[in-house]
Amino acid sequence: MKKCQLLLSIVSLFILSSCGSISTLFMKERPVHLMGAPSDLQVKVNGESKNISSEYFGQSLDGYSTRFDGSSVRHTTDYYTAAVKLPFKNGPVTMELYSPSKKQSATVELTPKRWSIIFWGNMFSFPLSGHILDGITDNNKILKPNYIDVEYALQGKPVSEWRGKAKLKSKEKKAIRKGK
To answer: Which domain of life is it from (predicted)?
Structure first.
């Protein structure tokens, strides 16, 4: 019985020791955020129409308050934006964006890249088994770019001229606070 428990513990440790494997155990798709997307945006991926969902992209600390008993309460705001969930292991993806109101369209090429946050998660949890497992399963990948600058894409600007992730998130948060 003890040998069986030891073997099960070792196997569990190896299987569950990977950040990417745990986070994608039941998830086959990851969101690609459409920052600054007009409300009428239409998206096709590899020629197939996709539904746009609302996905979490950030949080801000609004402040603290004190209860009657003297304890503190942290107040935060979660931010959501338009996104398309896509499989992240299947190779390059072609995303077509179209806004009927602006009469503009764009094509964006997305490629799977290693996700550095999972690399560092594995380094601090189980370096050897985590990297091996994620390398075999490709659970350490994400489609890049994963934050689409829709405004610039529809204007025809190349990805190299898009605003960075931090600027896009900041702009989106401001727009949400103002009520778009």
So the answer is: Bacteria
Structure-block tokens of residue 143: 């489609």
The overall pTM is greater than 0.90 = no
Say whether 180 sits in a helix, a strand or coil.
coil
Q: Is 79 exposed, middle or buried (0-12, 13-18, 19+ CB in 10 A)?
A: middle
Asked if residue 158 lies in contact with residue 109, where contact means CB atoms within 8 angstroms, the answer is no
Amino acid identity of residue 10, one-letter, is: I
> How does pLDDT run across 17-66, given as a tens digit for each residue?
555 455 555 567 888 999 999 999 999 999 999 999 999 888 888 877 88
Q: Which residues are CB-neighbours of 32 under 8 A, at least 6 positions away?
A: 83, 84, 85, 86, 95, 110, 143, 145, 146, 147, 148
CB 120 within 8 A of CB 20: no
In angstroms, the CA 134 to CA 1 distance is 31
Task: Reduce the DSSP state of residue 77 to 3 states and report it.
Answer: strand
Instruction: List the structure tokens of 107.
Output: 């094509």
- The helix (H) or strand (E) run that includes residue 36 is none
Residue 29, C-beta contacts closer than 8 angstroms, at least 6 positions apart: 85, 86, 87, 88
- As averages over each run of 10 residues, the pLDDT of the chain (180 residues) reads 68 54 62 93 94 90 80 86 86 93 94 65 62 63 86 94 92 84
